[in-house]
Amino acid sequence: MPVVVASDLDRTLIYSAAALALTMPDARAPRLLCVEVHESKPLSYMTETAAQLLTDLGDEALFVPTTTRTRKQYQRINLPGPQPAYAICANGGHLLVDGETDRDWHARVLARLADECAPLAEVQEHLLRTADPVWVRKHRVAEDLFAYLVVERELLSEEWVKELAVWAENRGWTVSLQGRKIYAVPKPLTKSAAVREVARRTGADLTLAAGDSLLDADLLLAADQGWRPGHGELADAEWTAPAIRALPERGVLAGERILRELLRTVRSPR
């Protein structure tokens, strides 16, 4: 039986320059591998050690990249190791099989959103109307599934974020603040649902997961075992659960530690 390893990417396995958290002396900093280029510039990194660990993990388990990124954003990433047979994009809205969208899965997701949530247009209009241009830099809609804002974090009104969360809750949506992005996502649009589908299709008897944000909480809770780094929304909230291990490492070294833990667990007798 295969082991499914479903992991968030940004600030879990891969890191922008701003998120690396290289606090050690320069001469002791780890060697880094660039795994994403955007507009001809390097954008995301992992340590070379993490790259080898991910390669080994891909050889011994079914590694499933599980991200809130759109398909286009995900396809910019060039991860080491075997090409994943499955990948989850748009927070579970798209299940990629050998790089192609599974249309049946996407149709099921759309039907559930239509039944259970306020329409995207209503949420988008609310964001455009209430967000202050002083701290908003971009308004974005992802895959016609959810919306997010790119903001100046130091200018952002925390009170506005709280009010938005309450407004969204009453309409079947959830709000998550990750770095410079505020996400508004329909509640049924979850990574965990897509991972369960992968486990069902492959007959997996063990699911492992990792993630750092509130949008990863359902993924971690659905797994048999999960790990979170010492940074991110979940760490800030001191969030935990019985099968979740909270690691102390922060930044790119947390990604390395997470992969070490995943690989060790995959190799352990069950």
TrEMBL record:
The keyword Hydrolase applies. Keywords: Hydrolase. InterPro entries: HAD-like_sf (IPR036412), HAD_sf (IPR023214), TPP-like (IPR024197). The keyword DNA-binding does not apply. It comes from the Bacteria. GO terms for molecular function: hydrolase activity. This is HAD family hydrolase. It comes from Streptomyces marokkonensis.
